[in-house]
Amino acid sequence: MGSLVESGTGRFLVCAVGTKTQLGKMDALLNPEEELTPLQAKLEAIVHQISYFGLAVAVLTFLALTIEGIIKFARVDNVWSLEAFGGLLNVFILAIAIIIVAIPEGLPLAV
Question: Which of 15, 19, 36, 64 is the most exposed, fewest CB within 10 Å of its CB?
Answer without folding.
Answer: 15
